[in-house]
Amino acid sequence: MLMPSMRGPVLLTGVALALTCGCTGSTGTDSRDNSRAGASSPVIPVVASTNVYGNIVQQVGGGKVTVVSIISDPAQDPHSYEASTQNRLELSKAKVVVENGGGYDDFVGRMLHSAKNSSPAVIDAVKVSGKAPKAGRELNEHVWYDLPAMGKLTDRVADALAKASPADADVFRRNAKAFKDRLTALERKERQVKAEHAGAAVAVTEPVPLYMTEAMGLRNKTPADFGQAVEEGDDVSAQSLQRTLSLFAHKQVKALIYNKQTSGPPTEKVKAAAEDSGIPVVPVTETLPQGEDYLSWMTANIGAIKSALER
């Protein structure tokens, strides 16, 4: 869930709020092959629900795709976003559409349902990930923090682009492999944190980073009803808030991972309690920060969590 921040958290990383499309930064593509292919095949129009997925598509497609990311402003909430006429026009031209799914960006489904004379290949990241709700818990739809899931998504994107432009299939699959190789290197970094800090307790203001913290072997001690209320925009009960604040007063966690794009009185109190107790605050975001690509963003997140644990 995205809402404008009321005030900025103490940062352990240089990650900034995203204000532009995430199709920036190094793409890791083979520009020579893309240039040669460009003489014989058209550019593929792609629409992504957020700039996170837009950037991944750009890295796989290189110069053979034009990507429109509908959500790139951190003030835009995917849960309640209403599509504009321009969004509908862009989607009507798309050959490939990438959405998060899982109830996160339902506006894409509504647009597709109402679109006429349009039948793009639709990639649902949650479905591709194979994630399912855990017993007694709702689905954590923030699958872009799950690196193996993004590896699966990368393959699916390459397949869809190859179908749209068969002449460039080898380029797309080669770019996808290069991207996945770098994802694998990041997974090794997560395992290194796990080897050094498995079982360490952390708190989160929302379940946004939990796939990453679980891969690192970290325990989330935040009361489930606190994170759920914040994510849904509901009131946090006084009892839930007090239980969360006590994690810091009694030094029960080694870090607070704070969604800086969602801020309100309860999360501000939690952040202040962590700071007052000398517990590191690690900010994370839901959209791609300005000047970052997906891989550099995830590298920064892993590094920031690791640094916090080492303090």
TrEMBL record:
Keyword Signal: yes
Segment forming the signal sequence: 1-18
InterPro entries linked to this entry: Bact_metal-bind_prot9, ZnuA-like
Keywords of the record: Coiled coil, Metal-binding, Signal, Transport
Domain of life: Bacteria
Database matches in Pfam families: ZnuA (PF01297)
Subcellular location: Cell envelope
Keyword hit for Signal: yes
An annotated GO cellular component: cell envelope
Coiled-coil features, chain-numbered ranges: 169-196
GO-annotated biological processes: metal ion transport
Molecular functions per Gene Ontology: metal ion binding
Principal localisation: other
Entry protein name: ABC transporter substrate-binding protein
Organism taxonomic ancestry: Bacteria, Bacillati, Actinomycetota, Actinomycetes, Kitasatosporales
